Structures are given as C-alpha cells and as structure tokens.
C-alpha cells in the first residue's frame, strides 16, 4: 500500500518506520517541506518526503498524525483527500491532557469526516503511545491492540489488515461513531501512563476478542 503520513512527530515517525518495514511505500509530509525531508532522511527504510498535496495525490491511505485542531487546515492543504482512506489517529484533548474538548454527540473522527466528506475516514492507532510504536508495536512484550472504526467497511478492513501486517492486534470497532468511545479510552490511557505513573509501556485491549 502507498501510505502518506501527515506529520513529523513521534507518532508519525513511529508509524512510518513500522509501515515501511512491513513493505509499504511510505511518504512523510509537513507544512515545512525541509523538515519533512530531514525526518525522512533520518528514518531511512526507503521513506520519502513530499508536500501535502503531492503526498496525498500518490497515496492510497493518508495518516493524520497532526494535532486534532490542525486537521481541518491540513485536509484543505491536501486538496480534500477525495476517495482516500484517511486514518485518524488524533485525540481532541485539552492542552493539559485533563479531558476531551468534544465528545458525547460527536468525536474528532466524525468532525474530520465532515471536513473530508468524500474521504473514507477510519479511526485507528489513537490509543497507542508513540513509545509502543518505537518498540515494534509491543506493550509489555505483547502486540498492542489497534481498535479500528469506520462507516466504510472496506476501508475498516484495509486498516485492520494494515495494523496486523505491521505487528499489531486489531479489533473491529464498528462504525465511526465508536470513536466517541475510543477517544476517551485514549485519554484514560494517558492518565494511567503519565498521571498515575504507569509509564508508556502500556496499551488498552479487550480479552477474548481476537
């Protein structure tokens, strides 16, 4: 799969390396193209860099690895992402990570779908710490679980396969409205990891679900 990752932070870098090692063609992109080029060179593994619009044009799937508040602007800069699988890894957290900024009747993923109405938005990877990605997708020595939600069944299955191919477990979380549950789970994971001192070698899962 040809995958473009919008963002150059720890989550973007971690996913880029895992996907590239799994045999996918990976491009990283940023508002600052020089920074994207530098990050791609540092990551190696055949990872390339491009502008948002060029990266989107070549991609089958686009990963939004930017802050939720920046997502609408990035989608616009990329030309709307029509027909693309858009993997939303964002969480709408307050600046101090003490709570969600939206929820109950919507989610970050659903708002992103509104900003990219012709795209196939998939919520995934939002409950995984960057350090887990850097540990080959493992938490506590076991493959971390990626919960995958989308209203497009084919896109949901494609991202679930992508996650498994990269070394994760995956759980089908149903339609995109399930992001209203997954985003608070990510907030709780952050509270456990940082607020309660359990560290970042953790990830949520559900026993009994393959």
| Order of strands, widest sheet | 3-2-1-4-5-6
Quaternary state of the chains: single chain
The secondary structure category is alpha/beta
* Beta-strand residue percentage: 15-25%
Task: Write the CATH homologous superfamily.
Answer: NAD(P)-binding Rossmann-like Domain
3D architecture notes:
With 210 residues, this protein is an alpha/beta fold. The protein has a single domain, classed as Rossmann fold (3-Layer(aba) Sandwich), CATH 3.40.50. 38% of the residues lie in helices and 18% in strands. It contains 8 helices and 10 strands. The chain has a 6-stranded parallel beta sheet, sandwiched between helices. It has a two-stranded antiparallel ribbon with strand order 7-8. The protein has a two-stranded parallel sheet with strand order 9-10. The longest helix is centred in the C-terminal third of the chain and has 17 residues. The chain is globular, with a radius of gyration of 16 Å. The two termini are 24 Å apart.
Write the SSE topology.
Blueprint: E1 2-6, H1 10-21, E2 25-29, H2 33-43, E3 48-50, H3 52-58, E4 61-64, H4 71-77, E5 85-88, H5 108-115, E6 120-123, H6 130-134, E7 138-139, E8 142-143, E9 145-148, H7 153-165, E10 169-172, H8 179-195
Parallel strand pairs: 1-2, 1-4, 2-3, 4-5, 5-6, 9-10
Antiparallel strand pairs: 7-8
Q: Can you tag this structure with a few keywords?
A:
Rossmann fold; six-stranded parallel beta sheet; alpha/beta; two-stranded antiparallel ribbon; 38% helix; globular; 210 residues; 10 strands
Compose a concise summary of this entry.
With 210 residues, the chain is an alpha/beta fold.
């Amino acid at each position: 799969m040809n995958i473009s990752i919008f963002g150059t932070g720890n989550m973007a870098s971690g996913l880029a390396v895992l996907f590239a090692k799994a045999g996918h063609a990976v491009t990283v992109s940023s508002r600052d193209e020089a920074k994207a080029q530098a990050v791609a060179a540092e990551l190696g593994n055949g990872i390339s860099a491009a502008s948002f619009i060029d990266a989107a044009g070549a991609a089958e799937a686009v990963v939004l690895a930017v802050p939720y508040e920046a997502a609408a602007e990035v989608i616009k800069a990329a030309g709307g992402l029509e027909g693309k699988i858009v993997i939303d890894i964002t969480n709408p957290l307050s600046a101090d990570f003490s709570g969600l900024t939206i929820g109950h009747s919507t989610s970050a993923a659903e708002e992103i779908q509104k900003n990219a109405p012709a795209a196939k938005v998939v919520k995934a990877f939002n409950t995984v710490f960057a350090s887990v990605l850097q540990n080959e997708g493992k938490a506590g020595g076991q493959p971390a679980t990626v919960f995958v939600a989308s209203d497009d069944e084919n896109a949901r299955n494609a991202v679930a396969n992508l996650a498994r191919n990269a070394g994760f477990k995956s759980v089908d979380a149903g339609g995109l409205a399930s992001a209203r549950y997954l985003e608070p789970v990510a907030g709780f994971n952050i509270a456990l990891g940082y607020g309660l001192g359990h560290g970042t070698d953790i990830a949520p899962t559900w026993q009994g679900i393959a």
